[in-house]
């Protein structure tokens, strides 16, 4: 019996009917650790869409890029409780893991570790030499998990956003802001 069977879940390939539930899991799991959310906190909704909409679109991109790289975790009751997305750049020898998430009640059970191990095994079987996973600095759970599996931090990246509206551009040129004179940053 595998570890997954022992705790009452099944790992299976992605099916098109999984898309909406995976998006829902993604939005819930990435709250507080999403670049899209940080941008919204700084600028508000962008182009009429909230950060959840933008983050959910990452799953659309993962499906379009390499649907075979998506593994889904299903409970004994047939509910999707988590997933991992991955893709391979065989020419570069690198496998990528863009997204990994679970519903809250299924977190902390070692399933993320098992999913990552399965993906790493797939990468090895495909002849890849390295794997890459990213997380934000504030994701302590991710940092702990990834380093415990053997990933090493190699760099930190800063993400910048700029408001391209005419008002913001005018403020940048004049060095002024839209604040009232009595307001401070």
Task: List descriptors.
40% helix; single chain; 7 helices; five-stranded mixed sheet; 185 residues; Aminopeptidase; alpha+beta
Summarize the structure.
With 185 residues, the chain is α+β, with helices and mostly antiparallel strands. Helices cover 40% and strands 18% of the residues. The chain has a single domain (3-154), classed as Aminopeptidase.
Describe this structure in words.
The protein is α+β, with helices and mostly antiparallel strands. The chain has a single domain, classed as Aminopeptidase (3-Layer(aba) Sandwich), CATH 3.40.630.30. Helices cover 40% and strands 18% of the residues. The chain is built from 7 helices and 5 strands. The protein has helices at 3-6, 19-29, 35-43, 51-66, 111-125, 140-149, 166-174, and strands spanning 9-13, 71-75, 80-89, 94-102, 130-133. Strands 1-2-3-4-5 form a 5-stranded mixed beta sheet, with helices on both faces. Strand 2 and strand 3 form a beta hairpin. Helix 2 packs across helix 4 (51-66) and helix 3 (35-43) packs antiparallel against helix 4. The radius of gyration is 20 Å and the shape is globular. The termini are far apart. The model has no long low-confidence stretch (mean pLDDT 90).
> Which CATH top level class fits?
Alpha Beta
H/E series, N to C?
HEHHHEEEHEHH
- The amount of helix comes to 40-55%
| Annotation, overall tally of beta strands | 5
How much is the radius of gyration in Å?
Answer: 20 Å
| Number of structural units classed as domains | 1
Spatial strand order of the main sheet:
1-2-3-4-5
**What gross morphology would you assign?**
globular
Kindly, what is the distance between the CA atoms of the first and last residues, rounded to a whole number of angstroms? 58 Å
- Determine the mean pLDDT: 90
Beta-strand residue fraction? 15-25%
Pairing-aware structural class of the strands and helices? Answer: alpha+beta
Low-confidence stretches: none
CATH homolog superfamily: Gcn5-related N-acetyltransferase (GNAT)
Largest sheet: 5 strands, mixed
Number of helices: 7
